[in-house]
Amino acid sequence: LFLFGSLSAALIALQWSGPTFSEESLKGMRVLVTGASTGIGEQVAYHFARMGAQIVITARREHVLKEVVKKCMDLGAQKALYIAADMAEMADAERVVEFAKEQLHGLDYVVLNHIGPSPYGMWDADVDHVRWLMQVNFHSYVKMAVKALPALEKTNGSLIVVSSLYGKMCLPFGLPYAATKFALNGFFGSLQHELAMKHSNISVTICTLGLIDTESAMEKIKGYIDMPAYPAHEAAYQIIKAGALRENEAFYPWYTFYASLFRDWFPYYRDQVIRKVYKYQP
Ligand code: NDP
Which of 38, 63, 110, 207 is at 20 to 30 A from 191, Cα to Cα? Predict the structure, then answer.
């Protein structure tokens, strides 16, 4: 308890002494957000819009993107454009970054957030799905980062990668998803080292999220786990804030930080708890 208390106090003190977030600093910033037709990505787009940014959003469904763009303009975006793309296609991933760079005349923020639909439940041994999901949730992130890094280097820019507790801890019922999130954490965590060693201007922020109340997540977990879901608009705000403050890692909600920190301390008890929390009713 003493250790836990001291640690929390130290972390809070550290946070207080760090730079503060100013929404004003995002005015006019050139931003690309993926997976922005629904859920957390949509909320990220709305926050940036409210803060007066210039935004390009992408996802597959054009008619939904059109609506989000309209709302972004109503909220105060300096510019809002969309480009429909399927992240299973590497050419699309490349095309999206090129479009954003051209239309916005550069990039300050890139938020990689999209995920392909994936079944939730006991793994059904579908190897092709794992390969496909890797394309959508991981390879396209790498492709987009490669295309965006030179533009971000010029602007002291930020690359934000939306990950999950599933990328930090082994949990049941989302095996292909977990594989893609561990891959993201491994790749972009290692990239952070290399960029720092090269004294690069780019910051990379990896966001670890817990359960967020998006429609797709709520639908998936029904009957498998019973725990509080946190609001998507708040998750989106924390993602932007962490990126703007150039933090290496962001955790939302709070318990994701402690779960990641204590993950390997008591593996036997951790596994017992996980297998009790997630319900399996064959
Ligand atoms: P949603 O399912 O609500 O949104 C996914 C987005 O990705 C949509 O805009 C969808 O639009 C787009 N998308 C899906 N497939 C493709 C594709 N092939 N090509 C391009 N775009 C695609 O997800 P959430 O908002 O819940 O999650 C957002 C991020 O947050 C993800 O990275 C997720 O891992 C992370 N996260 C979410 C949690 C949660 O509980 N919600 C928990 C932990 C992490 P369209 O269908 O139009 O293509």
Answer: 38
